């Protein structure tokens, strides 16, 4: 088992009326996130029996920052009035700079920056992979309709799992089907204990599902956080994914740990 670590978080809400995402909604999102990253989520029991022993516990907890970069007291939430909607170009960089209608990052070596805004083109979220992008751009962006489990969140993405998924990417996880969706079965997520999978799944599948990359039971692992199913239908990271995230955290993002 890993040592439990804590990562300080700042949430930047960038909207025409940023008060629509309340402090309570942010706290609800953080609570859900912590359950998922401590493998304490109630729906873990819905992982199929054959894969129960593969469930991983990242032992990462997240807390809202108590101090600003200048050392002033804060609740770890900033609000910026902006009429902009944001494309996911370059991991959503425009929301990360005041000069383009966004909010500047707090030192990304010390804080995990999360931006909540209106993303264009039906994207729910986007993340920076380790080693790509400038320090000022590190962090994740989540659509305000897919953030948290109350307030502005809308079904079927109102159980906080967009942030769980995006933080998987932030800690170096690929999608469970790999990087492409062309069913070649050669492209993998570089994690041993997740079955090969041809392409993404949507909505809320059930039962054993197979495809041409994994043609036999127990089939593909569509209920993994790194697939595209609805929030209520994704339930876990595997041990292999957890190992990969912890390695990325310790080697690439170690300065975030407290
Ligand atoms: N990367 C995906 C997107 O931008 C996020 C998928 C999140 N899935 C979810 N059930 N919340 O669309
Ligand atoms: Zn993704
Ligand atoms: Ca795999």
Can you give a write-up of this model?
With 258 residues, the chain is α/β, with parallel strands linked by helices. Helix content is 17%, strand content 13%. It has helices spanning 23-37, 89-92, 161-170, 239-252; strands spanning 5-15, 60-64, 77-81, 112-117, 125-127, 140-143. Strands 1, 2, 3, 4, 5 and 6 form a 6-stranded mixed β-sheet that branches. The longest helix has 15 residues, at 23-37. The mean pLDDT is 97.
The number of helical elements comes to: 4
Low-pLDDT segments: none
Radius of gyration, CA atoms, in whole angstroms: 18 Å
Which strand-content bin applies to the residues?
A: 5-15%
- Molecules bound to protein: arginine, zinc ion, calcium ion
Key traits:
single chain; 258 residues; alpha/beta; six-stranded mixed β-sheet; 4 helices; 6 strands; 17% helix; globular; binds arginine; binds zinc ion; binds calcium ion; M43 family zinc metalloprotease
Compile the SSE list and pairings:
Blueprint: E1 5-15, H1 23-37, E2 60-64, E3 77-81, H2 89-92, E4 112-117, E5 125-127, E6 140-143, H3 161-170, H4 239-252
Parallel strand pairs: 1-2, 1-3, 1-4, 4-6
Antiparallel strand pairs: 5-6
Bound molecules: arginine, zinc ion (ZN) and calcium ion.
Residues 188-189, 191, 194 line the site of calcium ion.
């Amino acid at each position: 088992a890993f040592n439990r670590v804590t990562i300080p978080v700042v949430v930047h809400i960038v909207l025409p009326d940023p008060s629509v995402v309340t402090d309570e909604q942010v706290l609800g999102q953080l609570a859900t996130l912590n359950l998922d990253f401590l493998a304490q989520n109630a729906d873990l029991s819905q992982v199929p029996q054959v894969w129960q022993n593969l469930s991983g516990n990242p032992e990462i907890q997240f807390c809202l920052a108590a101090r600003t970069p200048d050392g002033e007291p804060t609740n770890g939430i900033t609000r910026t009035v902006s009429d902009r909607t944001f494309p996911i170009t370059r991991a959503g960089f425009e929301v990360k700079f005041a000069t383009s209608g966004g909010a500047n990052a707090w030192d990304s070596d010390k804080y995990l920056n999360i931006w909540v805004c209106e993303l264009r083109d039906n994207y729910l979220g986007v993340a920076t992979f380790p080693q790509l992008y400038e320090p000022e751009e590190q962090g994740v962006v989540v659509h305000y309709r897919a953030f948290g489990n109350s307030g502005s969140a809308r079904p079927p993405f109102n159980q906080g799992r967009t942030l769980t998924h995006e933080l998987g990417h932030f800690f170096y996880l690929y999608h469970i089907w790999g990087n492409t969706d062309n069913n070649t079965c050669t492209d993998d997520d570089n994690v041993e204990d997740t079955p090969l999978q041809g392409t993404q799944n949507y909505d809320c599948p059930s039962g054993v599902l197979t495809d041409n990359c994994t043609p036999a039971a127990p089939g593909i692992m569509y209920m993994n956080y790194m697939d595209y199913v609805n929030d209520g239908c994704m339930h876990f990271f595997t041990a292999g994914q957890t190992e990969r995230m912890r390695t990325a955290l310790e080697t690439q993002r170690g300065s975030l740990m407290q």
